[in-house]
């Protein structure tokens, strides 16, 4: 079958690889339909391997070369013994986290996403979404409703990141929220905060093109560019009592963005770190203490979020399709997908690869 595989930084290859094996007990085979190109995929392409194992993964034994793609969905083509929740012909969204299901401190507590042996389909597993088919575990596939589009099945994964970030921030009705970063995760987090009931929404980014895309998606958002705006001052001026926003969600992985969040959030507000920082980042810890704020990490998502996120998308509460700016074919994935998303102009948000 045809697949796009990562071999090394700047070395992605469209190749013919073996078809997926017949599912064993507790396994499911699917024909992939749509897969999104994630920021993690872009980082692997530009600088990797980062999460892709060069030596066999301790749990899955996967290693280079790796089929990419962890934001995807498809149609079930075969199931192994013991699989009862899906059957051949079902359309599914893929929850890509793979880990021990027992005998692991976090797995035993239902915190599967925190397992020390965590792997991901499309990064450290036999299969990924950027291929014609994939082999998965039964817990990796969740049936989607008839009204949900195939493209939307591929958007459940990034939307789950956004929903969990808002959960971690305890975003609630009537709150004011700042999101730093107008990439796909930032804008999906913006839409999730709106769905959670936040009524005053701020979005900051250095790229005016991305900010314009965000305003087209959610016209009421107040967009800010730190090259010309004092983020904290603007937000304080537009929030009750001039105290700052209730919650700030840092979706870039950038030191200055994190500092902006601390400046903009009110006393006893909450900062959620969603983006992965490439190294140590400085922050004014005096202000953390003086403002009595909470700073929380938000890693991936609990695996049980899938049905909830599917409902949020299928109901229209989170219109995730609005972040999709282009659909391409697998043969064009590098030039029209990866390279297009790395263009500093920032004219693209989420690109989906159509495998149909």
Report the structural category.
alpha/beta
N-to-C SSE string, H for helix and E for strand? EEEHEEEEEEEHHEHEHEHEHEHEHEHE
CATH superfamily of the largest domain: Medium-chain alcohol dehydrogenases, catalytic domain
Helix content: 25-40%
For the largest beta-sheet, the strand count, sense and barrel status come to: 7 strands, mixed
CATH-derived architecture of the largest domain = Alpha-Beta Complex
Rg computed from alpha carbons, rounded to a whole number of angstroms: 20 Å
CATH hierarchy class name of the largest domain: Alpha Beta
Shape: globular
What's the tally of helices? 10
Low-confidence stretches: none
Query: End-to-end span in angstroms?
Result: 13 Å
Write the CATH fold name of the largest domain: Quinone Oxidoreductase, Chain A, domain 1
Query: What share of residues are in beta strands?
Result: 25-35%
Q: What is the total tally of β strands? A: 18
Question: What number of structural domains do the residues give?
Answer: 2
Mean pLDDT: 97
Which short descriptors sum up this protein?
single chain; 356 residues; alpha/beta; Quinone Oxidoreductase, Chain A, domain 1; Rossmann fold; 2 domains; 10 helices
């Amino acid at each position: 079958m045809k697949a796009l595989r990562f071999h090394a930084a700047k070395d992605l290859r469209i190749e013919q690889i073996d078809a997926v094996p017949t599912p064993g007990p507790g396994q499911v085979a699917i024909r992939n339909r749509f897969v999104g190109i994630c920021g993690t995929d872009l980082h692997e392409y530009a600088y990797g391997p980062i999460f892709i194992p060069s030596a066999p993964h301790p749990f899955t034994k996967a290693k280079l070369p790796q089929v990419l793609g962890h934001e995807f969905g498809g149609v079930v083509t075969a199931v192994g013994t013991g699989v009862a929740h899906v059957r051949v012909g079902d359309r599914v969204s893929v929850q890509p986290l793979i880990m021990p299901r027992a005998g692991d401190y976090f797995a035993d507590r239902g915190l599967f996403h925190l397992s020390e042996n965590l792997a991901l389909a499309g990064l450290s597993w036999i299969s990924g979404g950027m291929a014609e088919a994939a082999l998965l575990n039964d817990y990796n596939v969740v049936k989607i409703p008839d009204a949900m589009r195939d493209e939307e099945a591929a958007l459940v994964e990034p939307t789950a990141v956004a929903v969990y970030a808002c959960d971690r921030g305890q975003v609630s009705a009537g709150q004011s929220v700042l999101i730093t970063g107008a990439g796909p995760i930032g804008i999906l987090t913006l839409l999730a905060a709106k769905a959670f009931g936040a009524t005053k929404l701020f979005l900051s980014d250095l790229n005016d093109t991305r900010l314009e895309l965000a305003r087209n998606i959610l016209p009421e958002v107040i967009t800010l560019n730190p090259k010309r705006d004092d983020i904290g001052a603007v937000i304080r001026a537009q929030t009750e009592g001039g105290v700052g926003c209730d919650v700030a969600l840092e979706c870039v992985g950038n030191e200055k963005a994190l500092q902006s969040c601390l400046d903009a959030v009110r006393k006893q507000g909450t900062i959620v770190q969603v983006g992965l920082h490439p190294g140590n980042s400085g922050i004014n810890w005096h202000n953390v203490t003086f403002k009595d704020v909470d700073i929380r990490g938000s890693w991936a998502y609990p695996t049980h979020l899938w049905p909830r996120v599917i409902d949020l998308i299928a109901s229209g509460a989170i219109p995730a399709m609005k972040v999709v700016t282009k659909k391409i074919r697998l043969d064009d994935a590098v030039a029209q997908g990866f390279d297009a998303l790395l263009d500093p102009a920032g004219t693209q948000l989420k690109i989906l690869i159509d495998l149909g």
